[in-house]
Specification:
The complex is a heterodimer of chains A (407) and B (205). By secondary structure, chain A is of the alpha+beta class. Helices cover 21% and strands 19% of the residues of chain A. Chain B has a two-stranded antiparallel sheet with strand order 1-2. Classes of the chains: A alpha+beta (407), B mainly alpha (205).
Amino acid sequence: MSIDADVIIIGAGGGGAVAAKELGELGINVLVLEAGPWYGNKQWEEPNQYRGPVSSSNPDDLDVHLLRQQYTRYEHTMNDIVAGRFRWGPADRRRPTWYRRIPEKGMSWQNAGVGGTTQHYWANSPRAYQMAVDDVWPISYRELIPYYQKAEDTLPVRPAPATPKEELFYYGAKKAGWSLLDTLNPVSPGYRPQPNAILPPNERLMDPKTSLYELSHMEGCTMAGHCVNGCPYGSSVDKVAKRATHVSYVPLALRTGNVDIRPNTYTTKILTDHHPNEGIIASGVQFRDTWTGEIGELYAKVIVMAAGCIESPRLWLNSELPQNEWVGRGLTTHYWDWVTGVFDEKDLMHILGQNHVDPFVGHTSAARLDYPGLGVIQPSGPQPWLIFIVNVWIQPKRGCLPTQAIP
Amino acid sequence: MNQMEHQPYVHPPHKKATFMAFVDAVIPPPWGGVAIQLDDYLIWILDHHISVQENLSVKTVLLSAPTALMLDAAATQLMALKGMKRSPDLLTFPQKGAFAALVPNDRFEAIRLLETLQIDLEALPSPYRNNANLVKNIVTFLHQMTMFGYYSEWVTYGSTRLAYPEDRELEGRSFTWDLAGYPGVSCGYRALRGFPVVEFADKEI
């Protein structure tokens, strides 16, 4: 049987892009199938309007000018869960989302597209708590450390810088008696900067001689606060400040010369063969072209499922693959509450030397108070939709700071 | 191409009144949801949310009409529970259905009946009939999307706000951003206050 690649990876998000880079560097020929569009690639100048070519494997196709046009930073255009560029749905925004029947009131906030949900994630990259891994997962925390280190070095993950909203949070945490932690492996409660996959601020950020517009076209974070809207700031795609996988791992994967990425390709089934010695083995995939509706098949020696915490188990079950006790287990969600504080201007003046604090400035979340075994409190400052609580439920007053508690 | 493409955005008065009543309750005047015609946003979103595979093609499920009827069913049930006889709010919503005829607090009570499933599920229109999961999910979704529409830049697309998303063009700035104290999109802020931790210490354990 002819094969299309050594390895087919399903999904080009947080997992698939990493696997593609690692395998490509080993000289293995990889084909990545991604259900959504590819932003910031010259092969798809208008990825939501035209089907474009089948795939791209050339790092020179990556274009930060296009990424800046496409990542407008506007919430409705980017984040609307029904019609936004970041949604769980086809590239063609005239068409509905891929509907998920979610019982109860939950929401599955995922993005299709190269980069997957890292396109809108806040780049918060904490390690799991050791107690949440050992004797829970089929791998120990100690075994995980080298993988954490490798990803933290590659992205890279750095201690987040402070802006006024973090200073205020640190002031409160310290005053409440908690200690500052400088560790990636907290075992006792304390506060610390978020480990964020965001490049450090440009050295000229605080120098008014360089305009903010110029800085947004240079390397380094500008504290613009658009992490959730899709960060377009940087001198080239691979130097964009927020290290979503389409600007971090995907460029590295393409540079190996062994990786081809095919957007607009929704994998619908894992195809299997019966091997005389090994029993049932995965031999390929069935897919649907999201622009044409055409069904096709692709074959490889190995199939890697990296379609996310919902699609991978769904695909496994829909493909009637052999029973495995880990399929569908271990789903980890954000189970959160929001608390909003209103501060007196005099207090802010005393703590910060200014009479206001703007939630939308700086990394969307750049600090955290860890309480291993219990949860996390993190200050957060996203865009107007998510700060609506400040103004709807509490009379507006300058100096509001939303805080999340995530058990 | 789906079947929505050439549908004009003229809604039956009853449906429009029902969603106006919903956004009016969630974001009341002044500067409320009705002022920016957020009902149009909810109807558009509901009619572009769900698709199902049919034998020959993918079909879009138009949810706005059954959702309006579901709100009416909840309102009718509330009226029966409370022994109400007629609308106290006829002037605001002359094209009333039962939901639009309720005063805002009663609209919330009707929504609460849906959220808690204290409703005759058999009396709801398809696809809500005997579909408790969808009822709860969409009622929450309506709240979220009302807030999202209000604070996002949707209203500033003006005359293009109901066009297909890629055809919308910004025509100004929303007053909702001023209410929220949000200055708009930004290239950056000179707000660096330093690094409480320069390097994390124990990368290994």
